[in-house]
């Protein structure tokens, strides 16, 4: 379900969905990690793509289906609020680690967003996400 105006965290155009796109980010991108997640970033090669795209990898180690879907929703919403920290044309993949669902429950989605923001800053402060 996308919003009528096509904007916001539910917009699907800003998502990485193909396996080859995930693989390119994993193989050639830079990464930053903390206890709860790993973030990879790599600039897209296609010209004209200005929006950053987000890909999520949330395995069963994170929890059951309900917990995984909640983690994905929280990460999408927080990423949408942090898009000003991501340079245009970047593909960003977030891998959730075990314990992220509990952390989100205990600390709230804003804390997850703060941790995600720290990782994005670490990635892009050192001259971008080029390897």
Helix content: 25-40%
The oligomeric status of these chains comes to single chain
The CATH class name reads: Alpha Beta
Spatial strand order of the main sheet: 1-2-4-3
**Structural class category:** alpha+beta
Low-confidence stretches: 1-6
DSSP strand count: 4
> From the 3D coordinates, which CATH architecture would you assign?
2-Layer Sandwich
- Count of helix runs: 4
Shape: globular
Number of domains: 1
**Strand percentage:** 15-25%
Distance between the termini: 36 Å
Task: List the helices and strands in order.
Answer: HEEEHEHH
Q: Describe the biggest sheet?
A: 4 strands, mixed
Which fold does the CATH topology refer to?
A: Ribosomal Protein S5, domain 2
Residue-averaged pLDDT: 87
- Rg result: 14 Å
């Amino acid at each position: 379900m996308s919003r009528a105006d096509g904007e916001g965290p539910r917009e699907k155009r800003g998502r990485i969905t193909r396996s080859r796109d995930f693989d390119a980010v994993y193989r050639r991108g830079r990464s930053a990690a903390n206890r709860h997640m790993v973030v990879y970033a790599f600039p897209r090669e296609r010209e004209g793509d200005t929006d950053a795209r987000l890909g999520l990898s949330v395995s069963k180690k994170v929890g059951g289906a309900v917990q995984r879907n909640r983690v994905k929703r929280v990460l999408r919403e927080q990423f949408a609020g942090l898009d000003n920290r991501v340079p245009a044309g970047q593909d960003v993949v977030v891998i959730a680690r075990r314990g992220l669902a509990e952390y989100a429950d205990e600390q709230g989605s804003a804390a997850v967003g703060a941790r995600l923001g720290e990782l994005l800053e670490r990635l892009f402060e050192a001259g971008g996400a080029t390897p």
